[in-house]
Amino acid sequence: MIHTDVPDYRIVLGEAWRVLAPGGRFVHIGVHPCFCGGFVDRTDPEAIVVRPGYLNGHWTKESWTDQGVRDKVGAVHLPLPTLLQLFVDAGFALDGIREGGDPIPTVLAVRALKPDGLIARTAHPPEPA
């Protein structure tokens, strides 16, 4: 539950890759990037509205609720493809993806595998595009 709290989640994934043994798994559970964030209007539980801004990864204090700390301290938003690509760029194989929340997902879980064998990768994954 930290990918929205660190300025560069790429570094976290690089460290996870470094310390895991081959065949090890890293489990990410976090805020669902598609349905939670400053670009989402959740005031009507029957109709979640996605406003412009979803595709822009950025730090923001905009929040879909005033009941937490996001509107006070901010958070990093990464669109879903950008977040998943960070796992691939770090050298992980995606091993499972699940959503949680009802009726609209609020949580995303990713299980990533550090493959056995030699995998060509850089010491630090490349910067996101």
Textual characterization of the structure:
With 129 residues, the protein is an alpha+beta fold. It has one domain (9-113): Vaccinia Virus protein VP39 (Rossmann fold, 3-Layer(aba) Sandwich), CATH 3.40.50.150. The protein is built from three helices and seven strands, in the order αββββαβαββ. It is elongated, with a radius of gyration of 16 Å.
- Return the string of H and E elements: HEEEEHEHEE
CATH superfamily: Vaccinia Virus protein VP39
Number of helices: 3
| Weakly predicted, low-confidence segments | none
- Give the CATH topology: Rossmann fold
Query: How much helicity do the residues have?
Result: 10-25%
> Mind telling me which CATH architecture this is?
3-Layer(aba) Sandwich
Q: Which strand order does the major sheet show?
A: 1-7-6
Oligomerization state: single chain
Indicate the overall shape.
elongated
What is the residue-mean pLDDT, rounded to a whole number? 84
- Rg: 16 Å
Distance between the termini: 23 Å
Supply the number of structural domains.
1
* Strand portion: 15-25%
- The CATH class label is Alpha Beta
> Helix/strand/pairing class, anyone?
alpha+beta
User: What characterizes the major β-sheet?
Assistant: 3 strands, antiparallel
Total beta strand runs: 7
How are the SSEs placed, and which strands pair?
Layout: H1 9-19, E1 25-31, E2 40-41, E3 49-50, E4 58-60, H2 70-73, E5 75-77, H3 80-90, E6 93-100, E7 107-113
Antiparallel strand pairs: 1-7, 2-3, 4-5, 6-7
Helix pairs in contact: 1-3
